[in-house]
Amino acid sequence: MAQKTNPKSRVHDLLGAVLGLFAAIVMATSPWQVDTSGPYPFYKGALIFPLMALGLMVMGSVPSFIRLLRPGATDSWHLDGGGLPRRPAVVLSMAVAFIIGIPMIGLEISCILFTASMLYYLGHRSPKIYVFWPLLLSGVFYLVFKYFLDVYFPTPLLLEYLGG
User: Fold this and answer.
1) How far is residue 150's CA from residue 153's CA, in Å, rounded to a whole number?
2) Do 67 and 119 contact (CB within 8 A), yes or no?
3) Is the pLDDT of residue 82 over 60?
4) How far apart are the first and last CA of the chain?
5) Any idea what the Cα angle at residue 33 is, between residues 101 and 36, rounded to 5°?
6) Could you say which of 6, 16, 124, 145 would form a disulfide bridge with 151 (CB–CB 3.0 to 4.6 Å)?
7) Between the CA atoms of 43, 49, 52 and 56, what dihedral angle is there, to the nearest 10 degrees?
């Protein structure tokens, strides 16, 4: 079970603010980091997804910035739990494995495995949830990327090795 955390810990707000600041810097410099010379319109170009993801990170960090600027009388700088935050570390490692899995085994299988493993790890073990949500999320990703955005992923390396 997750440990209770102090909602007034300023360390959490500092981390959120730093991540938001880095996201804002990367978002501001992204036109120089991403090749936009292709024939596609902006909404199909290579820059749209980084801008959306970084924009969400910046918006998510705004409350942390506000809390850092206006601290409360009971706020503290200690990190609750007294050790390594295992659950966020496991979630981060699964997210990295998902990204690595896309070119290896494909978007659909990676999405199903990632969602199912996350649901299992976070304690959602009902068969309805455990089977329905990974299939639904994978189907939505497939439809959005392939049919709405016309983004095709390359053939997974596993299929190339097996001769498919």
Assistant:
1) 10
2) no
3) no
4) 44
5) 90
6) 145
7) 160
Say if residues 129 and 119 touch (Cβ distance below 8 Å).
yes
pLDDT of residue 74: 66
- Paired tokens of 100: 């690595």
Q: What is the amino acid identity at position 21?
A: L
3-state class (DSSP) for residue 70: coil
pLDDT of 1 reads: 45
How much is the mean pLDDT over the chain? 78
Position 15: which residue type? Answer: L
Beta-bridged to residue 9, according to DSSP, are 76
Please list the residues that pair with 76 across neighbouring strands.
9
What amino acid is encoded at 68 in this protein? L
Strand (E) positions, the chain?
none
Q: What are the phi and psi torsion angles at 160 (to 5°)?
A: -65, -40
Domain boundaries, the chain: 1-81, 84-164
